[in-house]
């Protein structure tokens, strides 16, 4: 019994060792078909070529998704000259949404946008703000008036300034508070900034209380006004 167990364990260890050696050999034999990064590869392999997630390094370096031996999907490509592209790839070429970082006259520069067949096609149009929460708000309006560094708040009800607001919290991640008439605001704001507004108010018929919450990220610098209507 002892001899049989010992023999079985020995055979098992031999098989595991052989499989490990085979896997190591398979990884070494896995090809990357883009010459600039074909020196060394570690990662997923299929039918003898890089396929899945991996890292390939030659003159340049790429880390990300592969398909049929070429960068395909999301990945980061670093050139030997220092440029870095982070974004989408298709069949070894920059394709889709991406960001290229490089130096121009010794100054760090970036190109962000949409790429097509390895060539920059157009800038990506970003929303100047994103609303994350709007609870108890009938409608809202967020408007940029001009260049600057301010964010102001107006709370309305039935077309007039809301006089039934209670327990107001108006918070911005940067800047200093100030007020002009019925408007509250922050000045000297650093963008992007996150704004959180929480308060209670009576409904339009003044028959019930409403709990209101509004959260927004403003990305583009300027003089902004947030108007909430109950």
Q: What's the quick description here?
A:
It contains 1 helix and 18 strands.
Describe it for me?
It contains 1 helix and 18 strands. It has 230 residues and is mostly beta strands. The strands form 3 sheets. Strands 1-2-3-4-5-6-7-8 form an 8-stranded antiparallel beta sheet. Strands 10, 11, 12, 14, 15 and 18 form a 6-stranded mixed beta sheet that branches. It has a 4-stranded antiparallel beta sheet with strand order 9-17-16-13, with no helix packed on it. Strand 11 and strand 12 form a beta hairpin. The longest helix is centred in the N-terminal third of the chain and has 28 residues. The radius of gyration is 29 Å and the shape is elongated. 22% of the residues are buried. About 10% of the residues have low confidence.
Give the secondary structure arrangement, pairings included.
Elements: H1 2-29, E1 40-46, E2 49-57, E3 61-67, E4 70-78, E5 84-90, E6 93-104, E7 107-116, E8 119-123, E9 129-135, E10 139-146, E11 149-157, E12 160-161, E13 166-172, E14 176-180, E15 183-187, E16 193-202, E17 209-218, E18 222-229
Parallel strand pairs: 11-18
Antiparallel strand pairs: 1-2, 2-3, 3-4, 4-5, 5-6, 6-7, 7-8, 9-17, 10-18, 11-12, 11-15, 13-16, 14-15, 16-17
Question: Sheet with the most strands?
Answer: 8 strands, antiparallel
Percent of residues in helices comes to: 10-25%
List the domain count as a whole number.
2
Give the second-level CATH assignment, the architecture of the largest domain. Sandwich
Report how far apart the termini are. Answer: 83 Å
Strands of the widest sheet, in order across it, are 1-2-3-4-5-6-7-8
Report strand %.
Answer: over 45%
């Amino acid at each position: 019994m002892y001899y049989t167990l010992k023999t079985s364990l020995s055979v098992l260890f031999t098989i595991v060792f052989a499989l490990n050696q085979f896997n190591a050999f398979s990884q070494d034999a896995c090809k990357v078909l883009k010459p600039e990064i074909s020196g060394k590869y570690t990662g997923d392999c299929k039918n003898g070529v890089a396929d899945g997630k991996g890292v390939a390094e030659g003159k340049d370096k790429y880390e990300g998704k592969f398909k049929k031996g070429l960068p395909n999907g999301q990945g980061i490509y670093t050139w030997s000259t220092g440029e870095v592209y982070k974004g989408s790839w298709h069949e070894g070429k920059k394709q889709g949404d991406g960001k290229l970082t490089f130096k121009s006259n010794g100054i760090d520069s970036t190109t962000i946008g949409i790429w097509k067949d390895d060539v920059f096609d157009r800038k990506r149009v970003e929303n100047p703000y994103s609303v994350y929460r709007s609870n108890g708000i009938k409608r809202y309006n967020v408007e940029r008036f001009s260049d600057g560094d301010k964010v102001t708040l107006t709370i309305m009800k039935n077309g007039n300034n809301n006089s039934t607001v209670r327990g107001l919290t108006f918070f911005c991640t940067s800047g200093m508070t100030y007020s002009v008439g019925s408007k509250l605001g922050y000045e000297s704001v650093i963008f992007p900034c996150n704004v959180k507004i929480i308060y209670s108010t009576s409904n339009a018929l003044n028959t019930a209380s409403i709990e209101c919450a509004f959260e927004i990220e403003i990305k583009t610098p300027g003089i902004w006004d947030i108007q909430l209507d109950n």
